[in-house]
Amino acid sequence: MIDVFLNKVKDYSIDYLDNKIKIYGISQNPDTNDYMMVLGDHYGEMYCINCEKPYKNGYKWCEPCQMKYLKGEFKNWTSGNERIDYFIQEMQSKIDCPTDNVFEWISFNQFS
Length: 112
Fold this sequence. Notes:
Elements: H1 2-12, E1 23-28, E2 35-39, H2 43-46, H3 63-73, H4 82-93
Antiparallel strand pairs: 1-2
């Protein structure tokens, strides 16, 4: 039984750079005596936590989820001017790179 488990650990012990989840060690549940692999929390560094698609270009950024979030926020803010609001929304809809700045309405009272 232990040999089967250790062989599974060896099979999973693939380099993190190959987009596999890294194993940090082995533990044992004291209640069941079952052995388990301790996996790194790098899953959230490789895949979007919302849609679970892999990130691209090494950035923790998911364009579809970012756009969905921004569109969902449209109703939660306003400049008080419909044309300004539309312009900001248009600028936000053009984001296509993780290094792009998110153009937004910044309320004057945030400047202090």
